[in-house]
Write a structure and sequence with these properties.
binds zinc ion; three-stranded antiparallel beta sheet; about 50% helix; about 190 residues; flat; alpha+beta
Length: about 190
């Protein structure tokens, strides 16, 4: 199940960056395209670089110029405590991290918990809830991501090829909303 959703997420990342760029840009003809690998200030930056500009720290992640603070926040959301909140044992099994990210407890606790649910005949209901919760999160993340992209639409994008692209056109709100609605409807339709 989670593999399918992970695949879905990857699909979004690549396809949607392109799609959103086109929507944000408005008109193709108004795109300005500078030399390969250079930002506005003619500094060379590539994937993983960190630099200061406009009083903020920036980096290039997945080919897109991003504000560091945002990335830090996203990272903190995945920090795992040393001990399982449920059984208080140190989480050192390699399965602990992926299980903690979803269930907020260690692998063994999840196994025990699911065994209890099976005995009580509630396992299917529980699986459905996990899948639907994950889709709800995906929808929430997607909306946040779109908003972020819209807010930085006047910034430079660094494409996968390292080109810097600056969009001059206006955001096509109507088309963007239509697109977001389509993606959300699709994700909702995956619910069980
Ligand atoms: Zn535990």
């Amino acid at each position: 199940m989670s593999q399918k959703i992970a695949g879905l997420k990857k699909e979004f990342q690549e396809k949607d960056v392109e799609r959103l760029r086109n929507l944000i840009q408005g008109k193709h003809g108004e795109k300005t395209h500078s030399s390969v690998g250079f930002t506005k200030k003619e500094e060379f930056h590539e994937e993983g670089d960190i630099w200061e500009s406009d009083g903020r720290s920036w980096t290039i992640k997945d080919g897109i110029k991003q504000n560091i603070t945002k990335l830090d926040k996203a990272k903190k959301a995945h920090i795992m405590p040393l001990m399982c909140p449920k059984c208080k044992k140190v989480m050192k099994n390699r399965n602990d991290k992926p299980f903690y990210n979803i269930h907020k407890m260690c692998f063994n606790c999840v196994v025990d918990f699911e065994h209890e649910l099976q005995k009580a005949g509630k396992f299917k209901e529980y699986q459905r809830k996990i899948k639907n919760d994950e889709l709800d999160n995906r929808i929430k993340e997607f909306k946040l991501w779109v908003n972020e992209k819209l807010n930085e639409s006047n910034e430079s994008f660094v494409s996968e090829a390292g080109d810097v692209e600056k969009w001059v056109g206006k955001v096509n709100i109507e088309k963007t909303e239509e697109y977001v609605t389509g993606v959300v409807e699709y994700l909702e339709s995956l619910k069980v």
